Amino acid sequence: MLDAERFLRLGATVKLRLTGDELRALGFVIPMAALAGYVGAHKLVEPRAPSSAGSYELVGPVTHIRDGDTFEVSGVPVRIANLDCAERGTVAGDNATALMRRIASSATVSCSLEGRRSYDREIGICDIPGVGDVGEAMISAGACARWRW
Predict the structure, then answer these.
(1) Do β-strands 145-146 and 83-84 pair in parallel, antiparallel, or remain unpaired?
(2) pLDDT on residue 119
(3) pLDDT at 62 over 70
(4) Helix, strand, coil tally for the chain in percent (to 5)
(5) In a 3-state reduction of DSSP, which class is residue 69?
(6) HSE-CB of 25 using CA atoms within 13 angstroms
(7) According to the per-residue pLDDT averaged within each range, which of 21-25, 94-98, 114-118, 119-123 is highest?
(8) Which phi and psi (to 5°) does residue 11 adopt?
């Protein structure tokens, strides 16, 4: 007799005979497994707490740096409100992205989101302990200009 692992590697079809109780149990288990897979693939973010005048606070780890003026906080894209950086693919844009990586990679940030969006991104001002306002740090370093809208 083949062991189960080798049997399945050979591409064999497995047929099971289940009782009514077992089928009902699978009716619960399969959707729960699908839900667990969905939740695992989509990071859940703590609800944002209202702050002042339509803004919200988002606190969490920086999980991805998109470019010099956008990163993701626990999977939520945030466009830094006071920054205007060159686009990635340009020398200035690549330098700004590299600086943002040095400043924010794996940091825990606190963002005050304005309630406005730009494309798929929330717009806000973010602070990192020991750095302060991320936008001001990028401007002070000469990597980006102040965003005027």
Answers:
(1) antiparallel
(2) 87
(3) yes
(4) 35, 35, 35
(5) coil
(6) 5
(7) 94-98
(8) 80, 25
| Domains in the chain: ranges and CATH | 4-41 (no CATH), 49-146 (2.40.50.90)
What are the phi and psi torsion angles at 60 (to 5°)? 175, 180
At residue 31, what are phi and psi to the nearest 5 degrees? -60, -35
* C-alpha to C-alpha distance for 68 and 62, rounded to whole angstroms: 13
pLDDT-derived band at 103 (thresholds 50, 70, 90) equals very high
Amino acid letter, 99: L
Specify the DSSP class assigned to residue 137: H
- Please give the Cα distance from 88 to 100 (Å, whole number): 12
Tokens found for residue 114: 């304005």
- Residue 81 confidence (pLDDT): 92
> Which of these, 113, 108, 101, lies nearest to 137 by C-alpha position?
101
CB 71 within 8 A of CB 62: yes
Task: Give the residue ranges of DSSP H helices in the chain.
Answer: 4-9, 20-41, 91-104, 134-140
Strand partners, 145: 84
